[in-house]
Automatic annotation (TrEMBL):
Organism: Peptidiphaga gingivicola
Signal peptide annotation: none
Molecular functions per Gene Ontology: methyltransferase activity; nucleic acid binding
Membrane found in the keyword field: no
One GO term of the biological process aspect: rRNA methylation
Keyword rRNA processing set for record: no
A Pfam family it matches: Cons_hypoth95
InterPro entries hit by this protein: DNA_methylase_N6_adenine_CS (IPR002052), RNA_MeTrfase_RsmD (IPR004398), SAM-dependent_MTases_sf (IPR029063)
Protein name, entry field: 16S rRNA (Guanine(966)-N(2))-methyltransferase RsmD
Keyword tags: Methyltransferase, Transferase
PANTHER family for the chain: METHYLTRANSFERASE
Top-level taxon: Bacteria
Length: 185
């Protein structure tokens, strides 16, 4: 069972696809969102949830007061489930049923404060690097991108000008936070 950890929908459950997804655990979401909240992200922010799967990350952000949430999921069934969960929880989230690469191909109308990337653990590093190379086109200059990977995966290859700001391990899960590097002058 997957529950929303905090905010307007705290404690309410969401349905998850029967197969093909790996929802981020409550423990990981609690730690991740506690850190993001502490840094001033989420409430009032624009959030992009790539490889959305069950929508757990995007819906958690919506529950915690994100101003705008877009969930991107290529599976039609999973995208419909995210829409149904958002309606059931009375949360606002745009659900885009498309491949992540397609969503990132053109210019974004929104500069996102937070971008979540929770790709399948078996997504190869070259494909992930190609997706990450598109972050500058969607992430606000003072934004943060959060990438979830298997603890057995290497650190992803970040786009030029990005730096790791945090890395944490939770059992089989590693969470990397990255932001555009700021040059102090």
């Amino acid at each position: 069972m997957t529950r929303i950890v905090a905010g307007a929908a705290k404690g309410r459950t969401i349905k998850v696809p029967a197969s093909g997804t790996r929802p981020t655990s409550e423990r990981v979401r609690e730690a991740l969102f506690s850190r993001l909240d502490h840094l001033g992200y989420v409430e009032g922010c624009a959030v992009l949830d790539l490889y959305s799967g069950s929508g757990a990350l995007g819906l958690e952000a919506a529950s915690r007061g994100a101003a705008f949430v877009e969930c991107v999921e290529s599976s039609r069934k999973a995208a419909e489930l995210i829409r149904a969960n958002a309606r059931a929880l009375n949360l606002r989230a745009k659900v885009s049923c498309m491949r992540v690469e397609s969503r990132l191909a053109g210019p974004s109308q929104t500069a996102f404060d937070v971008v979540f990337l929770d790709p399948p653990y078996n997504l190869d590093e070259e494909r992930l690097a190609a997706v990450l190379a598109r972050l500058p086109g969607v992430l606000a200059p003072d934004g943060v991108a959060v990438v979830e990977r298997s603890s057995r995966s290497p650190e992803p290859s970040w786009p030029s000008g990005f730096a790791t700001t945090d890395e944490r391990a939770f059992g089989d899960t590693r969470i990397f936070s990255v932001s555009p590097a700021r040059l102090d002058t």
